[in-house]
What we know:
Distance between the termini: 40 Å
Number of strands: 5
Amino acid sequence: MTIKVLLADDQALVRAGFGSLLLRAEDIEVVGEAGTGDEAVRAARSVRPDIVLMDIRMPGTDGLTATRTITEDPELADCRVIVLTTFETDAYVFEALRAGASGFLTKETEPDDLRQAVRSVAAGDALLSPGATRRVIEQFAHRPAAPTDTAERLAVLTTRELEVARLISTGLSNDQIASRLFISPHTAKTHVTRAIAKLGVRDRAQLVILAYETGLVRVGG
Length: 221
């Protein structure tokens, strides 16, 4: 199956560079480009990509707003957004996750890592690098306790699904979860899929957010 990618960045050279790297993979196709957030939304609705590589800082409608518009559009339910960011300067990393982004990449990402990231997110995995995860945790460290009704959402999960959700929130893959719990990778994937469906979240990245919001996982322990 070919993974369709839309590139959204206000710098043509950046789009060209990412496009060139992606086109070297036989299973990835660049189906469109956009220079603004508004163009990204229109292009997503037109070409229906599997993945949008979205720069946060663009003129007019920024990438954060465009990400939210795309992820909230029922007709784009199968589209995933990977935010392009520089952790040192972007103040919107956490909010991008809240807006529905499935992960992050820096513009200095190695070519092989870029292609693998696209494949991973297209397959339903979240892309949370250690740097991005630390940023998210730092944000939660300064947030008030979750409302009771938010925490009660976890009641729909079985004991095993809760355990799996905790492990996802530490950044473990399905294979690593399987190894930790002495179950098969297929069983681990089934638990992950069920937890995501029961909680009504979009993907693994959103499950991580909810895990911290509800107190299932706590900062520092």
